[in-house]
Design brief:
Layout (H helix, E strand, L loop, with lengths): L5 H8 L7 H13 L6 H8 L3 E8 L6 H15 L5 E8 L4 H14 L3 E4 L4 H13 L4 E4 L11 E3 L2 H13 L7 E7 L7 H16 L7 E7 L4 H14 L3 E6 L4 H10 L6 E5 L3 H9 L4 E4 L2 H16 L8 E3 L3 E3 L4 H6 L5
Parallel strand pairs: 1-2, 1-3, 3-4, 4-5, 5-11, 6-7, 6-8, 8-9, 9-10
Antiparallel strand pairs: 10-12
Helix pairs in contact: 4-12, 5-6, 7-8, 9-10, 10-11
Length: 344
């Protein structure tokens, strides 16, 4: 159809070069006319290569945010097994940077074909990805990204924009002089990369709307393992501040803040947090949490694996940065959102 040899067609299909511009144009014209698509399963089986992908993300307990990431990787492992892809999951303690370092070193020792990373710890991730790049091991980010690295793809929220939106929802129509609680988790060493980005977006909204001198931000640091201490810290803040109107935390455990506000009989506070945890949903349905900002973590994991397969096995084009929708969930729409079944 193109007026060229089979060998020329083969070189075009597999991007092997040594094809004249005239022949290349002729072959591509025919491919467009017949709506050609390769048999990906046949291609992967013909290669006979076994691909080993490793996922590195935080360890979790049942019902926590990272459980949905875990399920997304599991689904991808099932769907791409037929393409000789095998997925291994490695977990680190998101409150301990050394745990991330230890797991990343273990991964480097085993020299995988690709790595998927949730980069909570910025400096430690930079060290890891620098070594991956030296070894020509492709890697992708989920949940948050570090832009100056040579990552293949990113799937996740636009963290800066989500923080900006959170500020707009939380601070809109607050009276001048209102006080706002900003809660963050205490960590060893590095602060969460995503938390930093969300906080930057939040503060940028305040600056854009000249709220710096109109609202007072009160920062509180929660201990991840001591809820009594957290409640006492909140109680102390309320006892010395009389105009607290709103509160926010930039991580997925806003239910802890909601629980303490309920115990302290402070449920009229406007409260916003992140992610579709079961405990968060309970407080959203009760009206104690006003809004949850969700980000489809299972899809982040699945599509990250899919795109790595497209790059390494199928030689298809992929997009580097992929922002998932920023879902705003409230008491009035949460039930339909949960019940709607959307398979990947």
């Amino acid at each position: 159809m193109a007026g060229v040899s089979e060998g020329t067609v083969d070189r075009v299909l597999h991007d092997r070069g040594d094809v004249s511009a005239k022949s290349l144009e002729a072959v591509k014209k025919v491919l467009d006319e017949i709506n050609y698509s390769p048999n990906l399963l046949a291609r992967s089986l013909a290669s006979k290569k076994q691909y080993w992908f490793v996922c590195l993300f935080p360890v979790f307990q049942q019902g926590e945010y990272w459980e949905r990431v875990d399920k997304g990787f599991d689904l991808a492992a099932q769907d791409f097994l037929h393409y000789n892809v095998h997925i291994e999951k490695q977990y680190y303690n998101q409150y301990d940077p050394q745990s991330f370092v230890n797991e990343s070193n273990n991964i480097l020792q085993n020299n995988p074909d690709a790595v998927f990373i949730s980069p909570i710890f910025r400096n430690e991730t930079l060290d890891f990805t620098t070594e991956l790049t030296k070894r020509h091991i492709p890697f992708s980010f989920i949940d948050s990204m570090i832009e100056e690295t040579e990552f293949l793809t990113y799937y996740g929220q636009n963290s800066f924009k989500s923080g900006y939106i959170a500020a707009k929802l939380l601070l809109n129509s607050l009276d001048e002089g209102s006080q706002v609680l900003v809660i963050r988790n205490r960590r060893k060493g590095s602060v969460s990369n995503q938390t930093l980005s969300r906080n930057k977006g939040f503060m940028h909204y305040i600056q854009d709307n000249k709220l710096d001198n109109k609202l007072e931000l009160i920062h509180i640091e929660f201990d991840n393992n001591d809820e009594t201490s957290n409640r006492n810290a909140l109680n102390q803040v309320f006892s010395t501040n009389s105009n607290i109107k709103a509160a926010i935390t930039f991580n997925s455990k806003v239910y802890r803040l909601a629980m303490h506000l309920e115990e302290l009989n402070q449920t009229k506070i406007r409260l916003i947090g992140y992610d579709l945890l079961d405990q968060n949903v309970v407080y959203l349905q009760q009206g104690i949490i006003n809004c949850l900002i969700a980000q489809r973590p299972d899809k982040q994991a699945y599509f990250t694996v899919r795109d790595m397969c497209r790059e390494l096995i199928f030689r298809q084009g992929i997009k580097k940065i992929n922002y998932v929708p920023i879902d705003l969930l409230m008491k009035e729409n949460i039930e339909d959102y949960i019940k709607f079944s959307e398979y990947i």
